[in-house]
Specification:
Elements: E1 7-9, E2 14-16, E3 21-28, E4 33-39, E5 42-47, E6 51-64, E7 72-75, E8 79-82, E9 87-103
Length: 106
């Protein structure tokens, strides 16, 4: 899907790593939450509360997922999942546009 309809967008940006990673929160009527963001080149580590589904809209990155020893590369159209309550590392090799969906785990 290339657009969202009937949503609420939180105006205040989420900014991490001195503004090198930013996103905006999109809230859906059914309680679903997503963020749309941009990551500048660099290396970052994030922690999750909920399970995350990352969709790469443009750009290129390498990710080290929990429990893995090998970095995986994703680019335009690629997706990967990160388990809830875990940490993962990113190496952004070029400006990357992404959509992150948060999945509540019961």
């Amino acid at each position: 899907m290339d657009r969202f309809e009937n949503v609420t967008i939180v105006k205040k940006a989420n900014a991490y790593f001195s503004g090198k990673v930013t996103s905006r929160t999109v809230l859906f009527g059914n309680g679903e939450r997503k963020t749309l963001g941009i990551m500048l080149p660099g290396e970052y580590e994030f922690g999750t509360g909920d399970k995350e589904l990352m969709e790469i809209l443009a750009g290129r990155l390498d990710v080290l997922l929990p429990g893995n020893e090998q970095w995986l590369t994703f680019q335009d159209g690629g997706t990967f999942e990160v388990p809830a309550n875990s940490k993962f590392k990113l190496k952004i090799t070029e400006l990357t546009d992404y959509c992150c969906s948060y999945v509540k785990v019961s």
